[in-house]
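Service request form, structural biology core

Requester: graduate student, group of Dr. S.
Request type: structure prediction, single chain
Budget code: on file
Notes: please return the result as structure tokens.

Sequence provided:
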Amino acid sequence: MSISAIIVAAGSSRRMGFDKLSAPLLGKAVLLRTVEAFCAAPSIDEVFVVSPKERFADLLGYKFPKPVHQVDGGADRQDSVEKGLHALPQGTTIVAVHDGARPMIAVDAIEECIQSARQYGASTLARRVTETLKRSDSEGFVRSGVDRDNLWFMETPQCFQVNVLRGAYMQVRERNHLVTDEVSAVELLGASTHIVESRKPNIKITLPSDLDMAAYLLNKENSTL
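Core staff response, request fulfilled:
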């Protein structure tokens, strides 16, 4: 029995204007920081990076404490995750799926999600919605408020017992659905996903300003160590 991580890093970074996963963040590439976090998690046995070979080349030369493998990506996220699932070795019991563009993920958050998946079959890291929410009309005018109780921003990792996630992606393919995360795929099975509250910054690098914010937060964190 083993636990694997699938790092989804096959996107084109169109909104960024350059390869955000190869971009330096305090001297290390974004993707390298993400992979290092999962290699540091005690429960993780192997890491599968779903990315183009050219992007994975940025990781070559680093001596990771655990096996790190490259897997070719698909046309969209769900195809890439499915390719990662196919690459998992026999005997894998739990898989953690994570966005390569979330380099600030904390090791303790990874471990908590894995423990939750052991217990409930499916888990996700998520952040509470704390901002005021409003619903507008089609012309952009505020029309009503939205109750934010029990509302969450989905983050990653999203962790699953492998048979649960494989069954979910079979349903996605058979129903010709498009899903943007694994929790949405598991919903097709009628299964519930347990929420692990995100208590530390877990920024997804999407815009250049996100790199600046991540660098600021990392510097702040390092100054308190």
